[in-house]
Amino acid sequence: MTSTRRPPLTYAEAGVDIDAGNSMVERIKPFVRATRRPGADAEIGGFGGLFDLKAAGFVDPVLVAANDGVGTKVKIAIESGVHDTIGVDLVAMCVNDIVVQGAEPLFFLDYFATGKLDPAIGAEIVKGIAAGCIEAGCALIGGETAEMPGLYAHRDYDLAGFAVGAAERGQMLPRAGLKVGDVALGLPSSGLHSNGFSLVRRVVAMSGLSWEAPAPFEPSRALAQALLTPTRLYVKPLLKTIASCQGIMALAHITGGGFPDNLPRVLPDDLAVALDLAAFAPPPVFGWLAEVGGIDASEMLRTFNCGIGMVAFVAADQLGETIQALAANGLAPVRLGEIIANEGERVVARGRLKL
Question: Which of 139, 264, 276, 306 could form a disulfide with 282 if both were Cys (CB 3.0 to 4.6 A apart)?
Answer without folding.
Answer: 306
